[in-house]
From TrEMBL:
One of its GO terms (biological process) is organic acid phosphorylation. GO terms for molecular function: glycerate kinase activity. Signal peptide: none annotated. It holds the Pfam family Gly_kinase. PANTHER family: GLYCERATE KINASE (PTHR21599). Belongs to the glycerate kinase type-1 family. This is Glycerate kinase. The keyword Transferase applies. Keywords: Kinase, Transferase.
Length: 387
């Protein structure tokens, strides 16, 4: 859908979820309702590779494929990925796989398991897509429960991780301390793999997967040391097995630490390249074409803060819209960025639920109606909507 000239054109609503209260699609619905029937809108729910990525691309016409897989601690869960069949231009079938669907924190049945949580279920999803004929796997990393370096994912794809006695290692990052040999003879691959992630951390060290993200997954300082030791050993044995590639070693590359080190395994063993999550997924969603004739873009997420500026969805949307000269405003639950920081990121103005209701708990419980009131204020305030 396109408008006819900027003044009479449509408004693109391209927000991420409001975590804990509204999905990206629900944000778009409430914003559209608040803007009123006179404003033509195009909804394009977005995500940056984390929670909600599959929902976002399914909303743009991809098919949801459900698969029963092991969750991060082994219990069966029903996870989904998005499927796009071969395109008329010859581009082969594409599967968009969200790690959080199979191996995310929300899939933990009984609280954190920092030492034993596994990415195995994500590997099962990849294997399912490969058997279906996928020629490209888009792997969204974010919200993971595991710090296993992607070991479980690789095991699900036929890689054997063996101890000194030739026994397969059990799940989790702690077990990697006993890794002696990696057997890749059974690896099932065959598709281009693109990792969509907004994380630029390396695998190891003070900015690595265990040190930075381990505590978010329930790891104590002692657990972080155990996980760091396991990941370090994994990196050394992997280097002996598959080499380091050209230039920077895999473990040191930006994004190797994503999702507890799944980024590392994807690059070293699956030949993946890492792309900024929101930038790549906007391409999958056909975002640029939706800007034709648009008069305004409304983006957003639950919290506009320092993390927003590190490649989160609103920053990516603002960058893409800015290249086309389409103004951008944002909606959010709360914000900690001042107007100057937002403008530097290409966001002209931001409207927060806390502008209407200072109690965060009330904002979460009544996010939909509050967002409609906020959108009505936008319709009355923003110049593009008063013409």
């Amino acid at each position: 859908m396109t408008g006819h000239g900027r003044a009479g054109g449509h408004v693109v609503i391209a927000s991420d979820k409001f975590k804990g209260s509204l999905t990206a699609a629900e944000v778009a619905e409430h914003v559209a309702a608040g803007l009123g029937p006179r404003v033509r809108t195009v909804a394009v729910p977005v995500a940056d590779g984390g929670d909600g990525t599959v929902d976002a691309v399914v909303s743009r016409g991809l098919t949801r494929v459900r698969v029963e897989v092991p969750g991060p601690t082994g219990e069966p869960v029903t996870a989904a990925y998005a499927w796009r069949p071969a395109a008329p231009d010859g581009d082969g079938p594409v599967a968009v796989i969200e790690l959080a669907e199979a191996s995310g924190l929300r899939r933990l049945p009984a609280g954190p398991a920092p030492l034993t949580a596994s990415s195995h279920g994500t590997g099962v999803l990849i294997g399912h897509a490969l058997r279906r004929g996928a020629r490209r796997i888009v792997l969204g990393l974010g919200g993971s429960a595991c710090t296993d370096g992607g070991a479980g994912m690789l095991q699900a794809l036929g890689v054997r991780l063996l101890d000194e006695a030739g026994r397969d290692l059990p799940p989790g990052g702690a077990a990697l301390r006993r890794l002696a040999r990696i057997d890749v003879s059974g690896l099932r691959a065959g598709a281009e793999v693109v990792v969509a992630s907004d994380v630029d951390n390396p695998l190891l060290g003070p900015h690595g997967a265990a040190a930075v993200y381990g505590p978010q997954k329930g790891a104590s300082p002692a657990d972080v040391a155990v996980l760091e030791e396991g990941l370090s050993r994994f990196a050394r044995v992997a280097a002996r097995t598959v080499g380091e590639g050209d230039g920077v070693p895999y473990a040191e590359r930006p994004g190797a630490g994503a999702a507890g080190g799944v980024g590392f395994a994807a690059m070293a063993f699956l030949g993946a390249r890492i792309e900024p999550g929101i930038r790549y997924l906007l391409g999958v969603l056909g975002f640029d074409a939706l800007l034709d004739g648009a008069r305004l873009v409304i983006t957003g997420e639950g919290s506009l803060d320092e993390q927003t500026l590190r490649g989160k969805a609103p920053a990516g949307v603002a960058e893409a819209a800015g290249r086309r000269g389409v103004p951008v405003i944002a909606v959010c639950g709360r914000r900690t960025l001042d107007d100057d920081r937002l403008r530097a990121a290409g966001i002209r103005a931001a409207y927060a639920l806390t502008d209407l209701e200072p109690d965060p708990d009330v904002c979460i419980a009544h996010a939909g109606p509050l967002l409609e009131r906020l959108a009505a204020r936008i319709a009355a305030t923003e110049p593009e909507l008063r013409t």
